[in-house]
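seq:
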Amino acid sequence: MRKFIGTDLIIVYHKFKNSLPEDFRKELEASLIKAAKGDYVRNVKADYSNISIVSSFLQDYVGHTFDLQIIKKAGLNKAKEILSNFQRYNT
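struct:
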């Protein structure tokens, strides 16, 4: 659930961050970081396709947005693994 809620929070954050009250925005940012770090620790494998795509996006977005290099790198690496699997199996 963390991945799916995290991506919903990304949509809210990305679209409305400039119009949210500051205290709410900060809590939202903390929640996004916590979700990405938890996802990083769980480390779902790239061949679990739907979940790994969401995981890669969550980690990459949060890593880039909040300058979390390890999280950003993990998201990008997972995306590369997903692409490699797609190219290997053509599906």
